[in-house]
Amino acid sequence: MSKLRGISVIFDLDGTLVDSEPNYYEAGRQTLAAYGVADFTWADHERYVGIGTQETVADWKDRYDLPASVDELLAAKNRRYLELARSGTRAYPEMRTFVELLAAEGVPMAVASGSSPEAIAAVLTGTGLDAHLHTMVSAEEVAHGKPAPDVFLEAARRLGAAPSDCVVLEDAAPGAAAAHAAGMRCIAIPYVPAQVDAPEFATAGLLLRGGQGEFTGQAAFDWLCRTV
């Protein structure tokens, strides 16, 4: 019998399973440069970590007074991101170990992300994580992106799991807030060091203040086994 019977695990994608934020930054920088915004920095990008692409470009439109529609900006950014994602996105090795440990126990898993469905599929295929992660939900498929709980609740529905039986892995404060709002436990692995003390992370069942440098697949697996 599985040590984790009854538990389902839902992963955020970007910054949690894979190190894709550099690609997202570059896609954003290129998109904004095409509309005359030439000084978009990594610090500017960090404010959007954990927020869906649609919400991000909607904010850009207002912040930078862009002439393009939100749909046009979304398509432009997604196109650039897909080009970068297909050419190389790295899965965090310890996250891959964790996925494999869960798969060996037959734990149902899903990915719930602010990325487009095409981007999620491309990244999972490119990293080989699609071998274990078959259920995917994009914020574009639900009414509201993170910090609303919609993507996590939809992932639970597709897994046939009760929200209270789900554990979310998240790197960003909006995602931790979304997990809490969904009634799910959260393992938080902050991507942006300056956000470690964000109140949203205080709701996590396990907060790894050192981010990915502190995360190990075996330790996360052992924590789940102890807290079932």
UniProtKB/TrEMBL annotation:
* Keyword Transmembrane helix among UniProt keywords: no
Q: Which UniProt keywords apply?
A: Hydrolase
Record keyword Repressor present? no
Q: Name one GO molecular function term.
A: hydrolase activity
NCBIfam families, per the entry: HAD-SF-IA-v3
Give the protein's recorded name: Hydrolase
